[in-house]
Amino acid sequence: MRFAADLHLHSRYSSAVSPAMTLENIALWAQRKGVDLLGTGDCLQLNWLRELESGLIPAEPGFFALRPELEKSVWAKLPQHLHRPLRFVLSTEVSCAPPPKREIEGIHYLIYFPSFESAHAFRERVAPHGDLSEGRPSLNLHSLTLLEMVKEHHEDCHLAPAHIMNPWFSALGTIGGVFSLQELFDDKTNLLLAIETGLTSTPPMCRRIPSLDRLALFSCSDAHSLDNIGRECTLLDIEPSYHALFAALQSGAPNRVLETLKFPLVHTRYFLNWCSACKEPFDATLCPKCKKALVEGSRDRLKRLTTRPHVESVENAPPFRELLPLAHLIAQRTDKKPESDTVKRLVQQLLEAVGHERYILTEASDAEIDAIVPQISRSISEQREGRSNFSNPRRSQEASAVKQTLLELGSFDYPGA
Question: What is the gyration radius of the CA atoms in the chain, in angstroms?
Fold first, then answer.
């Protein structure tokens, strides 16, 4: 079976997350977005864990489905052609911040559990090391210690470094990160599940980093709000089970991990260097506005992580496409903001008449699309064919810098460059 999997998101019990991130709303928006398989997120937070237990029932081995009454409530809010079975796996993100690290220097990891019993037991085990009332808890543990605890806890529990090149909170990040995974895990990197690319890196970028050579790649949204669910996801062809899912992700086998869909780098915050004061990215080392030093983004960080001038191998690197979400494409075409009422109305009309967002962006015909929103099919076709420049008028200088430097990141062609 084919699944579009988004295995990294958060509940309303995590800081800086929308209060609308309830189980019912997450399921509703996953149907809208065309996501079939979701990580629950935050499953060590007791209130959320109890909500998951009350809202989900066992389905295939290690997979969970909505309880019938909750599924009925979700489907009542959607046109019938968007009704699809949803599956969930138990997941959480945690931060390793052992003293003397400050919390901002913590490193984030994704953990997956095969059962509620396993999640409860692991929760008890790590409770002495952090405050589990936060959905994304900070643990007073070294990365290697956490990995060993996960693997000792249950053979089917898995740990993966999250958003690997985000400047903050990532294993290879600028703030709190290191230059090689071996610095964190010694000779046990083979015990890791895989590497989450995150918004700020692509498979070709990751494949230039020697310490990631033997690890497969996958992509997820890290959604903090409903509209960001599925903005990055991994397309899989697997038997419907927990074991098959994580065997596929760990192997990176191209017949099972078919493709990753990614949010365009030109629209991300932390690819270029970032000014924490002005809240903007710049192609510079000092902020041209406030003159403060910029936090090094993933583009410049990559130069410190590797001496490889280009990609030597594509083993365990699935093909990828960059797709701007539907609301952003319509906003560009209509000169509106993605969150505007006009854009929301047009998106809703497309979903009701054509299909879920992933279908619209990757499969729907021009005639289907233009019958509802004239001319938007042109933007969609350009994305599919790799001809979109992902223009962002408010950041045109930065967009130009991104496209120019992306050509140097590997032997892969960058769409639209």
Answer: 21
- Smallest CA-to-CA distance from 221 within 56, 34, 2, 368 is with 34
In terms of Cβ atoms closer than 10 Å to its own Cβ (0-12, 13-18, 19+), residue 134 is middle
Q: Which residue has the tokens 């994580």?
A: 246
Where are the chain's structural domains?
Answer: 2-265, 325-384
Question: Could you tell me the mean pLDDT of each successive run of 10 residues in the chain, 417 residues long?
Answer: 97 98 98 98 98 98 98 98 97 96 95 98 98 97 98 96 97 97 97 97 93 95 98 98 98 95 94 95 95 96 89 73 95 92 96 98 96 90 80 47 48 30
The candidate with the shortest Cα–Cα distance to 221, out of 65, 412, 93, 356, is 93
- Which CA distances in Å does 109 have to 53, 84, 137? 23, 30, 11
CA end-to-end distance (rounded Å), the chain: 34
38-74 pLDDT, tens digit per residue, is 999 999 999 999 999 999 999 999 999 999 999 999 9
Greatest Cα pair distance in the chain: 59
CATH numeric code, 2-265: 3.20.20.140
Q: Is the pTM for the entire model greater than 0.90? A: yes
Q: Of 15, 65, 70, which Cα lies nearest the Cα of 40?
A: 65
How far apart CA 189 and CA 349 sit, in angstroms, is: 47
Please state, in angstroms and rounded to a whole number, the distance separating the CA atoms of residues 134 and 152.
24
Q: Please state the φ and ψ torsions of residue 254, each to the nearest 5 degrees.
A: -65, -20
**Coil, helix or strand for 44?**
coil
CB 194 within 8 A of CB 250: yes
Query: Which residues of 143-290 form beta strands (DSSP E)?
Result: 158-161, 195-196, 217-218, 233-237, 257-262, 273-275, 280-282
Q: For residues 165 and 175, what is the distance between their CA atoms, to the nearest angstrom?
A: 10
Q: Which two tokens stand for residue 1?
A: 């079976």
